[in-house]
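One chain given next:
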Amino acid sequence: MIKRSLFIYLLLPLGVSAQIDLGKYGSISGSFESNNQLYVKDAVTNAVFPQDRIGSNNYLKADYRFQKISMGIQYEAYLPSLQGYPFVLNDAKLVQKYLSYQDTKFGLTVGNFYEQFGSGLVFRSWENRQLGINNAMEGINLRISPTNNLDLKFVYGKQRKNFDKSDGTLRAVDANYQIIKSAEINSEKSLSAGVSFVSRYQQYTGPDPNFKPTVNAFSSRVNYSDNNSTFSAEYVIKSKDEHLANQQNTNTGKALLINYGYSKNNAGFNLNLRRLENMDFRTDRSADQSQLLINYIPALTKQQGYYLSNIYVYNAQTLGEIGGQADLYYNLPKNTKLGGRYGMSIALNYSRYHALQITSQTPTSFESKFFGAGKQLYYNDINLSIKKKHSAKFTSSYLLQHIYYNKSVVESGNYENIKSTIVVVDILYKYFAKKAIRTELQHLFTKQDKGNWMGILMEWSYAPHFSVFASDMYNYGDAGKQVHYYNAGGSYTTGPHKLLLSYGRQRAGLVCVGGVCRLLPAATGLNFSLTSNF
């Protein structure tokens, strides 16, 4: 306890400094983030009480830049890690370091780095602390631009695995060619094409003499945009890749992603289509959950910011799914009959995902129609949102959402399929130039799972420094145990520094960012966080 407190408070002064400008010798910048929770017993939610009543995740990042050269480190301390993270640690280490040289035609990074090819379907290394994901590469990242239109990337190394490295080694090459550049033809048109090759090698010591330790993936893509429209398409094919997370499936991996968007004046639409087949791709055959992911596959559903809309959220099914989403939006102009003095925005979103249409199946493989949708529905979401500014002080937003949620598939288990309807009214009142009150009223209707929910949020803010809030989600429709998931707290912000303090209950369930999810346990306690950039 003493050791933990000393660590956190010794780092606090580092988070309140301005960026250090060294003049002709360059500059130093960085960030500090500390997320802490004091757990208390709660017989109402049956939350599992951890051995240590405190969880503390801390991150310190520092970068030095001098002309075209940069170097940096990241130090992390889990004392121990917050409950529900995909890894359990009680240690502190210097986990990342890098040295980089970047020019317009050449770039070289040695050490830890993040990279992405295309949309990320074949390769993406990234960090999301809320989800506990950090699959940074450790190795070499080389970028060469031999012409103004051609960019080449070469990646070699191992992925980060908590405080260690993956057993598998990643080798990857990416090429992107700009066929049309706006500056060249004096227009807003742009057209590019690209290819990627990613190879993972992990030594195999098992009994199968025919098992291939190398898995290769190839991707091709095209991107087009002009004044009003955008179009992109990417196709990935991956060799057989039997591992724990895909239940030893031997199918060749395939992925197709097509996006099209059009906007003009006050209206527009976006269309997405995606098909996945055995696209769980990792640097370690024994990894599961969110560990050691090579590629990035978001859910491609509308991400809502309301509590009750995030009870039943979709997680992409990499073993096999087909579906997509459509967005329609229209901004009613100002000073019109429907738009009024300040205008009004309307958005309609629809997403739907099915199982693949299987034509034959064995315990470890299946055959399917490429564009065929199976009868089993995984997820369906139709939602309408309206935002109206009534006056200089008063703005209201409304959401009506209907969801079909195959809980057995998304959360793995044996559950009843869920149909729910969510209604949200969000009211913002700015009664002074920097002072505002926001109120959210929410309700979720369902006859399945734990029944109906209601929610309320009250927030007072004094821009740009203070914010105070209180919220409650009440599961009054649960016949077994009706629970109030209350939360109250406040934050203080000054420049790039933010302090947040709250107390309340955490509902067990999925927490998702961009469609990538992890399962959170129920918890009750005091939360304290500090984020700072310098």
Observations:
- Residues 1-17 have pLDDT under 50 and may be disordered.
- The helical segments are 2-11, 182-185, 407-410.
- The first strand starts at residue 20 and ends at 21.
